[in-house]
Amino acid sequence: MKIKLEDVSKTFQTFRAVRGVSLEIESGEMVALLGPSGSGKTTILRMIAGLEYPDGGHILFGDTDATRIPVRERGVGFVFQNYALFPHMTVAENIGFGMKVSKTKRSKAEIASRVNELLGLMRLDGLGNRFPSQISGGQRQRVALARALAVDPTVLLLDEPFGALDANVRRDLRRWLREIHEELGITSLFVTHDQEEALDLADRVVILNEGNIVQQGTPEEVSRAPNSRFVTTFLGDTNRIPASVHDGSAVVGEIRLPAPNATNGAAEILARPRDLDWQSQGPGIAARVLRVIDRPDGRRLVVSTDAEAHLELDVAPEVVASVGATGFVTIRRGQVFNI
Ligand SMILES: Nc1ncnc2c1ncn2[C@@H]1O[C@H](COP(=O)(O)OP(=O)(O)OP(=O)(O)O)[C@@H](O)[C@H]1O
């Protein structure tokens, strides 16, 4: 089912939480709404679900204007963070609940067979008779997802579905969610404030700030060509290096970077830690090592420059640097923005 938002707005009392958002989600696509806390992600999801009505604009499901259609008639399944399962019902009863109360009447045998099918699909075989308190957090989220999928929704909405789980379980569940999404050919929209989760899972990422869409594109597009300082800094660790632009180049001491779109004057180079290098000899930005952080995938140096700014560099594990050592930072790649 294709979903279209046309100039959708929502104001709570006097606070404009969503400000004229237009967005298209193709049938079968998986889209992430990504943004900082308070940017309006959940409000958009709730309006698509029918749990909240917009006060401006339209929401279309296929060709149908769904703006005012009540939640139970929209054919959406949703899973929220910590979405409480019914504690007094078994896993199987939780999964079957939506089918029991649905307007579409199903026989007991039909419900039991669908529940079994979902237990298999969600890798919950053998757990149908347990109560929610007797299974792990990751299993509970899979039950919540099974419950959402039980009524054959055409649209699946997920709000921080794996928020409360530890990093490894999250990673496993998100790969698995992607498989389920593809297997069912469903249209999925999920909300997250976790950049890695959005980029890892979605076909397309929609980045929000203060109730507006500030950029959207494939993970590759938004990662490689963030269109603003906000998106660059939001998507990952970023160093901000003051520079000045002269005739298409950003200059910091002896370093020059191409800056074809910047105008002459004060600017800032935004560079990821992996885009900076550490050399024992100049030219470069003179700096002193403050901390060395070793990680499985490399080494991060935190250095302090003469201008008393801190920079973070990801270098190969072989790079020799110890706390107190002096050297030079070079910039391999960076985005230049006028300030
Ligand atoms: N029912 C409400 N009444 C008043 N203000 C609300 C209501 N719901 C949301 N808001 C406000 O609207 C803004 C957007 O909230 P929303 O939950 O959509 O943000 P979010 O991007 O999902 O944030 P988070 O990641 O923290 O969940 C916030 O400033 C919030 O305080």
From TrEMBL:
Record has Nuclease as a keyword: no
Q: Name one Pfam family in it.
A: ABC_tran
Keywords of the record: ATP-binding, Nucleotide-binding, Sulfate transport, Translocase, Transport
- Enumerate the SMART domains for this protein: AAA
Q: Which Gene3D superfamilies match?
A: P-loop containing nucleotide triphosphate hydrolases (3.40.50.300)
Ranges for domain ABC transporter come to 3-235
Extract the GO molecular function terms from the UniProt entry.
ATP binding
Q: Which InterPro entries match?
A: AAA+_ATPase, ABC_SmlMolc_Importer, ABC_transporter-like_ATP-bd, ABC_transporter-like_CS, Mo/tungstate-bd_C_term_dom, P-loop_NTPase, Sulph_transpt1
The UniProt record lists the keyword Transport:
yes
What the record says about family reads: Belongs to the ABC transporter superfamily.
What is the protein named?
Answer: Sulfate/molybdate ABC transporter ATP-binding protein
To which species is this protein native?
A: Mesorhizobium liriopis
